[in-house]
Backbone:
């Protein structure tokens, strides 16, 4: 996670909309890398959630506080020791996993303090990313991966398939997943059978295996 996390686009992007609609009213929510608090603020103001945030950027924390949000100024790479086991119903880690130094540790901490983790990330297996590298010979730059190679906070690029493999290694389960392809031109059937190639972005709901089907 870096100060760039404060540059999250305003609500509502498609991933924000999905997360907003997924979380029930009145839930206990922790938003890791909450940036300027756009999503967390909407959840608190419109759905009445009991929301907390963690943000490394001082500007982001100040923006959240100015909106009346409860945000902890800290680095999630150091863990979530401020909270006891099971403190939250949902823990959000959206567009941040590829920027943090200790992704496995942070995922483990998410599911220690929360019942369900919501993880969103850009898909480096997206077909246009592959083609960009193939034909240009340069590191891809897209809407979801906008930075030049020498100025990027992204230290752990990965694909949907990589993330599925990681969840297996960690003995975690997928409760639900949502892929976000470019609109138009491709049928929903093809998008469903080739998500690793056709999804430019995605959001997973994950949990410990015992939480599935609760």
Residues:
């Amino acid at each position: 996670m870096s100060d760039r996390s404060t540059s999250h686009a305003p609500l509502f992007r498609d991933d924000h909309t999905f997360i907003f609609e997924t979380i029930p009213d009145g839930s206990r929510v922790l938003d890791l890398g909450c940036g300027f608090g756009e999503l967390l603020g909407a959840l608190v103001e419109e759905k009445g959630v009991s929301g907390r945030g963690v943000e490394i950027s001082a500007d982001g924390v100040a923006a959240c506080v100015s909106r009346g949000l409860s945000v902890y100024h800290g680095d999630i790479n150091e863990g979530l020791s401020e909270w006891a086991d099971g403190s939250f119903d949902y823990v959000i880690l959206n567009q941040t996993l590829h920027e943090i130094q200790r992704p496995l540790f942070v995922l483990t901490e998410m599911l220690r303090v929360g019942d369900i983790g919501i993880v969103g990330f850009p898909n480096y297996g997206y077909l246009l990313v592959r083609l960009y590298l193939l034909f240009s010979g340069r590191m891809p730059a897209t809407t979801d991966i906008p930075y030049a190679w020498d100025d990027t906070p992204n230290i752990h690029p990965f694909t949907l398939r990589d993330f599925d493999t990681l969840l297996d290694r960690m003995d975690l389960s997928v409760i639900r997943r949502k892929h976000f392809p470019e609109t138009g031109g491709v049928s929903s059937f093809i998008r469903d059978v080739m998500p690793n190639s056709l999804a430019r972005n995605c959001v997973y709901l994950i949990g410990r295996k015992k939480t599935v089907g609760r």
